[in-house]
Amino acid sequence: MLAGLRDRLLDEVLGLLAADPEVAGVALVGSLGRGEEDDWSDIDLFILASDQFIRQFMNEPAASPWARGDLLSDGRHNSPAGATSLGTTHIRSGLPLWVDLHVHPAERAPWPTDSRAVFERRPVRTGTLPFGEFNASGPRQPATAKTQDEVRRIHLGYVANGGKYVARRSPRAGEMIRFLGRTDFSDPDPAAQLRALRGIAEDLSSPSWGRLGDAVAAHLDLVEATVQSAVGLGITAAHVRAPGLSAPWSGAVLAARRS
Questions:
Q1: Whether residues 82 and 152 fall in one domain
Q2: pTM for the predicted model, two decimal places
């Protein structure tokens, strides 16, 4: 279910990017770029644009249709100087989906070695570093100040990411729970992890962003159903995390690849 929703969202965002003349090229990075995606994978995009556009984008990201979502999180501090990052949350069919946009200068940035180029308006060389190393290199962009409510909304979204790690039987589930405030949590049992995440979501929720809270709760319900089904079928963590479970990308992505 999530994979189908994600792939349709990917098609939509790629179509908007391809239609924007300010965008010089786009590549998939993260698990989609490496071909290691599973049903729980998010979308990470490496976007090339001019220095002038990047400065404008940092100040007003929602002016670009491809950067709009139900929740935007400025992550420029995760990027090297001259680049920026924006986390976007989209609620589709009552479930949260994430698109992380990493915007780098077209004149200087190569494609990361573990990326998959979707389109480029002119030839772009492939560099020598994978995305994680390239994005972590050099001096950083300074972080932007966030209000307490903004931090709470962002952390509420992280609860669903914690659920993703529970579904994968990943140790990162416990790490996320501790990051979100349950600092003494150490139980590897998925049921206990889900109870902890539900409690954190309840603490973070607010009527003013009830739609996000409902989507996170629905995501945790889906994780619980997946875990229970896996236990009933005797499926191990390796099976849950196996790549290639998602549906093939559809028309807009394939068309963009050919362009």
A1: no
A2: 0.88
Q: Residues 60, 17, 143, CA angle at the centre, nearest 5°? A: 35
Residues 56 and 120 in one domain: yes
Say whether both 76 and 14 belong to one domain. Answer: yes
pLDDT tens sequence across 187-239: 999 999 999 999 999 999 999 888 999 999 999 999 999 999 876 555 444 44
Statement to judge: residues 117 and 157 lie in one domain: no
> What does 76-113 look like in DSSP terms, one character per residue?
GGGSBTT-EEEEEEEEETTEEEEEEEEEEETTTPPBPT
d(CA 42, CA 20): 23
Q: Which residues contact 189 (CB under 8 A, 6 or more apart)?
A: none
**What type of residue sits at position 140?**
R
Cα 21–Cα 63–Cα 209 angle in degrees, nearest 5:
140
